[in-house]
């Protein structure tokens, strides 16, 4: 009997909740149900990256956005529309080039990549900085290669206490809610 009452209560609560969230409109002969949150903001970007969450541990994208040393990386991620990829549950390792690393590229490279017509090329370069997993710098010393999200492998080299991934030196590591960010001093370009 108690189980039946609990089920009825939960069902009633779900109905009330769903009724509060949805609006019903009639357009001609069709009935359209819209979520009130999306009905008012159809022009806004959608996905996990755009949900505000001040409660949980910051994810990779949130940390990058808050870093003054990664404004170019964030602009590139936004230009390639890859924000949602960096907030996935992961775990992910992102090798995040600093602004100085982007500035070291030949003049005009970054500006050219940020153009809408070069979005696919930019996305390929950025995916070359992401690996599934959550490994510390010291644990990475055990690897010879890492498979990147772009489908290519990058070499891992150890020189003393320093670790280089795809030729980029890890200069800092920051844990995130969905993985780890390894700050690197160089942009890791795909082989082709």
Automatic annotation (TrEMBL):
Q: Which UniProt keywords apply?
A: Signal
Question: Record's superkingdom?
Answer: Bacteria
> Where in the numbering of this chain does the FAS1 domain appear?
57-188
Task: Return the SUPFAM superfamilies for the record.
Answer: FAS1 domain (SSF82153)
One of its Pfam families is Fasciclin
| Signal sequence coordinates | 1-22
| Name assigned to this protein | Fasciclin
Q: Which organism is it from?
A: Aequorivita vladivostokensis
Could you read off the lineage of the organism from its UniProt record? Bacteria, Pseudomonadati, Bacteroidota, Flavobacteriia, Flavobacteriales
